[in-house]
Amino acid sequence: MSITPISELNDRARDVFRVVVESYLGTGLPVGSRTISKIASLSLSPASIRNVMQDLEELGLLAAPHTSAGRMPTETGLRLFVDGMMQAAAPSAEERRAIEAGLVESGPIEEALSAATAALSGLSACAGIVMVPRREPVLRQFGFVPLNDRQALAVLVGQDGSVENRVLDLPPGVTPSMLNEAANFMSARFAGMTLRQAGDQLSREMETERSLLDGAARELVERGIAIWSHDADDRPVLIVRGQAHLIDDGTAADLERVRQLLEQLEGKQEISRLLESALAGSATKIFIGSENKLFSLSGSSVIAAPYRGADGRVVGVVGVIGPTRLNYARVIPMVDFTAQTLSRLMR
Q: Per its database record, what is this protein's job (predicted)?
């Protein structure tokens, strides 16, 4: 459905529409004409308000739930409100301090991103999300820990102290001594390289037959490099915090929607693809309900803003996921401030 331009609504319709949306976003309940008529600034009778609300419903901006005589905004109505009528409120000094508190220049950047996301989640009462800049770790040490005859735990230690483990299927005939040989070879040859550089170096050594490894140990090294490289390419680098905020007293009657949203949050690859669409822009993006196919069932909204690295390029996205009934005027500036703060940290 095409969205009615705000300019096509007369003053009376705009006033009634604004009251309905703001009341719904505040309470989550449909709004009736009697409630609106008590607002002195409108000076409209309940009958006049009902007529205006009926007109807004016919335009696809309001809807009437079967169980209530009141109206609530549709997703189309919310989009019109956010784009053309909303008056954003800048984050308070307390909110800014809460977001900045966890952002320290020392320590892994992931810790700062996680802290900012947790603060954003708590302030917005939504799930906080952040896409971490994709960085290839610089390697320091490798290890293989046998699990059984067919599998081993491949351990990668980065120069920043990070440790990653992967379960690796072993080639036939691999012995514990071969595991040690392969680990020592990889640590000696590839320390100080990224995974991509290590893979290229391994290929060159295999081509020139300069590798001193036998067939089984050589295959083990190849598999170790491959499993980390493949995982790094496919794994969404996404931090999600505050899913519990999505379950409150107001969701008791809508548990199925919440369940679907929580399941969608588990599918980090799908959410990462959604957020990647915000990487190309320079401003905060808002996805409302079924505007994005991923959240068509749960009827959720996403507010996401890109943040930049030291060279000024966009390197990630931070935002929130929550019900369509959220305080857009408060949360959008909060997300935008978090993105700006992260950009300053990354410089």
A: Negative regulator of class I heat shock genes (grpE-dnaK-dnaJ and groELS operons). Prevents heat-shock induction of these operons.
Sheet of 314-323, strand order = 238-241, 127-131, 314-323, 300-308, 285-288
Residue 291 sits in a domain whose CATH number is 3.30.450.40
**Residue 307 tokens, joined:** 């943040």
Same domain, 219 and 196: yes
pLDDT digits (tens, 9 = 90+) for 248-273: 555 555 666 667 777 767 666 677 77
CATH number for position 163: 3.30.390
Examine residue 207 and state whether it is found in any structural domain, yes or no. Answer: yes
Burial of 73 (0-12, 13-18, 19+ CB in 10 A): buried
Domain span at 67: 9-85
Contacts for 218 with CB less than 8 Å, ≥ 6 apart: 206, 211
Residue pLDDT, tens place only, 80-104: 999 989 988 899 999 999 998 877 6
